[in-house]
């Protein structure tokens, strides 16, 4: 009895691996690859965080890894311009009201994307009235101001968070598994990316994964990571659009 | 700690909280006039941990710089910056960036990368340049001593030990909660020690500046404010002169006593700057007090408003804010008080248009048709106010 209680506490305290019963991609019903053809996409400054995970699970930011990953991500996305459509433009350096506008939409996208991941991708979390709801999330038509600012039709948002298990964490993982059979995660590799139609503000495509592959600190790994992120995005020039997994009961 | 505005999950940021000030006399307090050590120039973070901490903060500051929650008023920003520079020295303040953030709490912090955040709730509660110098001196001490890095490393270490101890506990069927709690308490005590160190250095910085050391009064008011809140809510009053295990700062009473002793030693030389403070903050009063007036802690808001009025004088704007505080609570007796306050505000001269709005709304609610004239005056004075259409509608549709 006493042991159970302690074990339960330890599981709660150490963050044992959660069950990943989630969908990982959503595509708006009226969006297809043809819509991307010839349209410019503005790449909103990606959110990138790379670090380590201490024995106790504390995230430790690593500036060098993050800088490397940021540069590799930019290079990798540029190489895929052709796949994405036509032109990938970088977010302009702006200040004042324009800066506040872009910062506000970066924050809004992150909030909407997280809500979609939690309440759409995870079926168990859906509201009873939205059990079979299609993927329909929007930032609102105010995004037209971003279109006017950047000349782009779409905006691409990318968010990567990687914490590599420290040696201590790995030892602890092995010890916990071997000695008491507790499953402790070591390392965290999360990513999500979304495409927003700036005319309507609609989130036309969203991809999220709580356990991604590819070491973002190397060019090879970043290629794999970006490949995973974009794999189910309607590709320009593709003959057919991958069927949406949302919307069908 | 800094709420939704700073929404990114960064554990390390948790180390940046608080105007901690210290118990016990300053190191070498009797060693003669304080001279700032020479400034070594721009500092670059060293090693993986410090660079990582700065990276998180730099990213955070990028967003903060664009946030609509930052008060842009150039006059107020220049005023705060000048007090900071006069306190820590022009060479040191060059590297610091100040952001005044709309938040009702009594807080400020200076991050290791030089990002300085001052809450409007802090500016609402202070009464002079000397008091602001004391608070900024304290935050600067955390910055100069690089407390955030030490705190983050300590937190990681405690977390690591805690993990191994839990595992050992599971293996041996021994409860480890108490041990892990000890680690946590040790961590809190560590921050409390840092706060004490920062208080001591703050006193020396102010002593070496053109300002008077006047922090004891700040902590006396913090105690009075807390007592007022507890009386209103019917909460048990707490002793302010002892710290509990969970306090990450010295108790307010300890800080008051420490500064009182320091002030006695230093004497009353130096500039108080109350009039300058009143003049610089007056144009932004509605913003500085907005969250307090609209919040749920009536006693806190009323205490802060009254203490400013008593110290710096009741301006039309301050009377209007107090009137709004009563109007928004809205008991019949509050409406009587509010009407009086709005009347006093208008009589005081240079009252903001909101005084007429408040007077009109209160009079109408009390069945006095004179309220229509007051609301019409409001619309004349502030035709493009955000609520002007609403007031117009009220005037057109009323009996």
UniProtKB/TrEMBL annotation, chain B:
One Gene Ontology molecular-function label: metalloendopeptidase activity
Cofactor(s) the record lists: Zn(2+)
Family matches, as CDD domains: M48C_Oma1-like
Domain Peptidase M48 intervals: 98-258
Keyword check for Protease: yes
One GO term of the biological process aspect: proteolysis involved in protein catabolic process
Signal peptide: none
A GO CC term assigned to this protein in UniProt: membrane
InterPro entries associated with the record: Mito/Outer_Membr_Metalloprot, Peptidase_M48
Entry note: cofactor: Binds 1 zinc ion per subunit.
Keywords from the named record: Hydrolase, Metal-binding, Metalloprotease, Protease, Zinc
The keyword Zinc is assigned to this record: yes
Family: Belongs to the peptidase M48 family.
PANTHER family registered for this protein in UniProt: METALLOENDOPEPTIDASE OMA1, METALLOENDOPEPTIDASE OMA1, MITOCHONDRIAL
Identification of the protein by name: M48 family metalloprotease
Biological source species: Novosphingobium aerophilum
